[in-house]
Amino acid sequence: MKFLKKNWSNILFILFIALLIIPQTRKPIQVTLNRLIAFSPSEVAPEKRETIDSYNWLLADMEGQRHNFRETEGKVAIVNLWATWCPPCIAEMPSFQKLYDEYGEKVNFYFVSSEENEKLQGFLEKKGYSLPVFRPLSQAPGNLQSNTLPTTYVISKKGELVVDKTGAANWHDSKFRKLLDELLEE
């Protein structure tokens, strides 16, 4: 009993590490930790904003219908690059679903993943998400490319990258919704 009292913190630490090593428990722990540290995304300072170099980007929706990203030119858009195996991506999806439920008619949402449709559809159904998911058919415009998941871009009506966020964030935060409202009023 003395041993347990003396080493309880070490035992908890070892147990936590063991849970992170086991694949079945690692992913849920990573998702939970990412949700805990996800804050509202930061806005790019107006003087540092880049303008999208091209809207020419072919995408396919889950039904296989082709879309050109040009459809969003002159509109506020959110582009999220994600994957079903990515814990930070999974962590931010509930906040994206709430944001989509609230702004889906006003903002163009693009959740872009290179995974197979069956995998994506299974994930969406299991989680109960109704997000508009697309697969890329051509290379993304230069300033919408990233090697890190998740990466999210918020594009103004003028084509400026207002938010360029890598990693999980709370997208349904009041600060971010205020920014979206301002962008929609422009």
From TrEMBL:
Pfam families (alphabetical): AhpC-TSA (PF00578)
Gene3D superfamilies per record: Glutaredoxin
InterPro entries reported for this sequence: AhpC/TSA (IPR000866), Thioredoxin-like_sf (IPR036249), Thioredoxin_domain (IPR013766), Thioredoxin_ResA/DsbE_sf (IPR050553)
Thioredoxin domain sequence ranges: 39-185
PROSITE patterns: THIOREDOXIN_2 (PS51352)
PANTHER family: THIOL:DISULFIDE INTERCHANGE PROTEIN DSBE, THIOREDOXIN-LIKE PROTEIN HI_1115
Name listed for the protein in its UniProt record: TlpA family protein disulfide reductase
Lineage, highest ranks first: Bacteria, Pseudomonadati, Bacteroidota, Flavobacteriia, Flavobacteriales
